[in-house]
């Protein structure tokens, strides 16, 4: 059996730089893996894909990105081996934290090993992009500048394990809906991505905190004004810098380290939503053989 830890992401900056012919948005975003993770266990079966999850929010059939990743691998490689997958979900769902993308990336990496497919990292990245815009980043992880739909990746210098407080208000915001609303509102807020990249290069944590910015934040806030209240609460609780992640609704605050993040989280009103604290992480997926067999 093979265990995979699939890490969530946050967007330190997110800018939209154009519209692509297929309606997707051209992005420039600095993405960061965090230690918060889902856990997947892969057990070989003679044939068929069987998925089980402890999340009542998720399907266990072909609508699940894990199932789709396994099916895609079978289709492109002609592999006839099967697998049973158990997905233990910790990353808030549809929250701007890339949980589904992380699970899909972990499935590609794990089944490449379990089924001895021998696909290269480049081949896996091509498959990842077919599954979703955030999936390529989730294969690579760390601190990365992503462009295009999210698949053109430039790794940046790893940041220290800064603390992160995540607050996910109980809202249903679909990524597609937020991008559609962006097209209507065209907000004028743009992060200074080159300055963020330079701050990361200098390992200048106060500058990183000051430069957090997300073009989609005013869009999500226009639909769900509660997001502004969460930002204010995180600032008042002592976060160094605060911004919404991805299409939201999760808002995160940065702290010096995880211990400080725990203190900030403890000062928040639990009524704001699901509150978690974690830290930056320099890789996306951790694979381990368990029970001594593969
Ligand atoms: C906004 C971001 C920022 O990291 O993250 P989340 O909020 O989802 O975590 C990503 O761009 C989300 O990536 P992901 O969730 O993988 O997107 P996909 O499944 O490929 O696409 C969902 C929908 O988002 C829109 N979409 C996505 C990516 C992109 N560059 N342009 C788009 O317009 C499309 O309408 C698409 O139908
Ligand atoms: N394994 C999975 N984990 C989370 N969401 C999944 C998964 N498979 C499919 N989905 C669907 O993908 C959508 C986006 O989920 P998620 O990746 O958690 O959020 P986001 O795109 O905001 O980061 C959800 O509506 C969910 O139903």
TrEMBL record:
Pfam families in the cross-refs: GHMP_kinases_C, GHMP_kinases_N
Active site annotation, chain numbering: 9, 134
Enzyme Commission number(s) from the entry: 2.7.1.148
Pathways involved: Isoprenoid biosynthesis; isopentenyl diphosphate biosynthesis via DXP pathway; isopentenyl diphosphate from 1-deoxy-D-xylulose 5-phosphate: step 3/6
UniProt-listed InterPro entries: GHMP_kinase_C_dom, GHMP_kinase_C_sf, GHMP_kinase_N_dom, IspE, Ribosomal_Su5_D2-typ_SF, Ribsml_uS5_D2-typ_fold_subgr
Keywords from the named record: ATP-binding, Isoprene biosynthesis, Kinase, Nucleotide-binding, Transferase
Keyword Ribonucleoprotein: no
Domain GHMP kinase N-terminal intervals: 64-142
Function: Catalyzes the phosphorylation of the position 2 hydroxy group of 4-diphosphocytidyl-2C-methyl-D-erythritol.
Name of the protein in question: 4-diphosphocytidyl-2-C-methyl-D-erythritol kinase
Gene name, Swiss-Prot/TrEMBL: ispE
